[in-house]
Amino acid sequence: MVEPGRILLILPNWMGDVLFVTPSLHEIRLRYPQSSLTALVWPSCRPVLEGNPDINEVLPLDEKNFHKGFWGKIKLILELRRRNFDTVFLFSRSRTRGFISLLSRIPQRIGYQMPGKKHFLTHAVDAPPYDSMHRVEYYLGILRGMGFSISKKPQYVLEIDQESEAWAQKFFKEKGIKKDDLKIVLNAGGNWAPKRWSAILFGKLAKKMMELWGAKIILTGVSQDHAIFEAILKEASYPLVSAIDRTHLKQLAALFKNADLYIGNDSGPTHLAQAVKAPLIALFGPQDPKITGPYGEGKKTILFKNKGCQVPCFLPECEWKRCIDTITVEEVFEAAEKIVQSSRFKVQSKNEK
Questions:
Q1: What separation, in Å, do the N-terminal and C-terminal C-alpha atoms of the chain show?
Q2: Overall pTM > 0.85
Q3: N or C, where is the chain less crowded by C-beta within 10 Å?
Q4: Which class is 6-145 in CATH?
Q5: 165-352: CATH architecture
Q6: What does the pLDDT look like over 248-264, one tens digit per residue?
Q7: Backbone φ/ψ region at 332: left (φ over 0), alpha (ψ -120 to 50), beta
Q8: CB count in 10 Å sphere of residue 129
């Protein structure tokens, strides 16, 4: 393989997956410190990479607008040709993106050898079964196949700017949350229903932590999560702090970083919390945390229930929810108690009530 000068990195589509790739981007930077690295990624994931010291440029792949359809792909191909990349790493499994890299006349095209994609590659690495390992390790496998020596403890890479840090402090002040208060963030959303722990259970948990510990409970999420917030609020019977639909990605990460505990479902925000080393509890149901759970070192607890269903499961709706809703309030509370007790707080346990 010729030493690259201008490297294109074609990334997956979702926030969590982009974070899963960041250890690979770091390894590429270590291997080629003088090369220019450009990441091609969906606009919604662009903030994950902004400020990343391993990347020179983030190029949006806007398939809903500018790059939509046949002519949109032609625009993309012409743009990539103009940039004269000499190497591309394909972390996306998309055959279309493999074909685009070929048509963009990038001389060295590196990725997993997969049906319908291997003919687009100049350097094809044998692909392991997709669900046989954590996604971070799966993406690093491309580099291992190219002879890279990988760091012993890969970590997510996420940079938080000073403005977002300042926003988090201002938010706490506006909401009357003091520095010495026990701050617990609940993120009850998720991109499909079977991955979401019951809002009623979140409400019961919030109530218990407020009654026993005097915790300040902060709810985060997007605009679609307002109904979930209302259900949690009704069950908790206490005032809760809402940051729902009030943050951009880096502000959300700053909020997690400055909280004492994060509790959330299998979702992108949970990986953000892991990236900023927030103490966390992740609730898993239809997906296997060994494959898509929070990765790397940190103070984390993963609660995962499997009642005999196939995992991973991708049903958009499930009438039973026999996995995630079998996680009890008591189990989450006990996990939270262990984390909080090991910090600067000495909270009252359930047995001292």
A1: 66
A2: yes
A3: C
A4: alpha beta
A5: 3-Layer(aba) Sandwich (3.40)
A6: 999 999 999 999 999 99
A7: alpha
A8: 7
